[in-house]
C-alpha cells in the first residue's frame, strides 16, 4: 500500500495547494476588501477545524460570498487547524472564539462562564456583525444563538445532520432563538421533522461547488502516471475520511467481488482521520487490518489525506460513495464537476443529486455485490462512462454551482436583514 501520493507542496509560509487555490492564486496575505461600502458582516461559527466535506463547502462559500461583494464573511472557530489556514489563505477573515462553556450540568445542558458570555456579545457588537450562521449545533455552539440575539443579530442554523430523539428544551431552544434553519437536503429536513423540531422557518438550500476550479491541471495520462497506473487499468476511488458511516468495509467487500470477477482494476482510498477522534482512528486501524487479512494490497492503495483532490479525481475512471448515511455528499458534486462517474448508495443526500442511470448510479446501502456490478458495467463500457460523466458535469453546473448557492443564500440573508 502506497501512501501520500498527492501531498501538495507548501510554500515558505506553509500554505498548501488547496489554500493557494482557494485564494485564486493571489497573495493570501492580502485580505479581500468588500466591493460595497455598506456590505454587511456575517459571522459563520464552526466547531470543526479539519477539511472534510462540510468544511470544504464553507471554504468555497465564504470565498465566493466575499467575491460577490454584498456581504463580508467572517468565520469564527474555536481552534486553529487546516480549515482556518485555508480560509485565511483565501482572504477570509477568521476569529478564534472563546469557548463559553464551563461544564455540563448533570449531562443535560451546558453551564456558561458569565465573563466569557459578556465578551462574546461585546465582540459581536464591536465588529458590527449583522447576522450569525451556525454550521453545527452542539455543546460548543449552543450559546452562540442567544448571544447573537443579545447583540441584535438574527441567527441561522445550517443543518448538515439532525438526530432523533431530541429533548424538549432543544425543541424550545431552536424555535426560540433561530430565525431560520437551513437543511442541506430534503433528507436532513425529514430528519428534522421526525425529531419533533419545529423551527419558525425552514428553507432547504443544498451545498454548491466551484465548478470552474475542477478542470484538469494536466492531461489524464500524466495524472495517472503519478498514481503508477497502467493506461488500460480501470481506476476506482473512494474519497472519504475514516468514519464508520462512510462505508469503507462495504468498499473493501466490493473490491473483493471485483477481484473474483477477474476485472483489471486498481482501487484507491483517499482520506485520513479528519478531526482526531479516537473512534475514527479505530475505524482506520480496522480497515488497515482487514486489507492485510484479505490480502488486498496489490489492488488497493491508501493515499492518506490529500489536501487537494482535484488531480486525483481526474486520474480516476469512477468514484464510489458507499456510505451508510449522507446528509448531502460534497464528494458527489465534486466528482461530477470533474466529469467522473459516481456510484453511490441510496443513503440520503446522493439520491437528491444523482438521477440513477443518467447522471450517475445508485445502489442499495450495504450491498457490495450491487456496487461491484455497476462498477463492472462502467469498466467494460467506456461510452457509458463518457455519457454519464458529460451529463453529470452539466447537471452540477446548472443546479449545484457555488454561484447559484451564493445567490440563493444572499436572497435569504436579505430577507432576514430588512
Number of strands: 14
Order of helices and strands: HEHEHEEEHEHEHEHHEHEHEHEHEEHHH
Tell me the radius of gyration: 22 Å
Mean pLDDT equals 85
* Helical amount: 25-40%
Question: Judging from the principal axes of the Cα atoms, what is the shape?
Answer: elongated
- Largest pleated sheet: 6 strands, parallel
* Percent of residues in β-strands: 15-25%
Tally of individual helices: 15
Termini distance?
A: 56 Å
Given as residue ranges, the uncertain stretches (5+ residues, pLDDT < 50) are 1-20, 22-35
Backbone structural class = alpha/beta
Q: How is the quaternary structure best described?
A: single chain
Biggest sheet strand line-up: 3-2-1-6-7-8
Description of the molecule:
The chain is an alpha/beta fold. The protein contains 15 helices and 14 strands. The termini are far apart. The strands form 3 sheets. It has a 6-stranded parallel β-sheet, sandwiched between helices. It has a 6-stranded parallel β-sheet with strand order 11-10-9-12-13-14, with helices on both faces.
Write the layout of secondary structure elements.
Layout: H1 17-22, E1 40-46, H2 53-68, E2 71-77, H3 82-89, E3 93-96, E4 101-105, E5 109-112, H4 114-126, E6 129-134, H5 144-150, E7 155-159, H6 168-177, E8 180-183, H7 186-194, H8 220-226, E9 234-239, H9 248-260, E10 265-270, H10 278-293, E11 300-304, H11 310-315, E12 318-321, H12 330-337, E13 342-345, E14 361-363, H13 368-380, H14 382-399, H15 402-416
Parallel strand pairs: 1-2, 1-6, 2-3, 6-7, 7-8, 9-10, 9-12, 10-11, 12-13, 13-14
Antiparallel strand pairs: 4-5
Helix pairs in contact: 2-15, 9-13
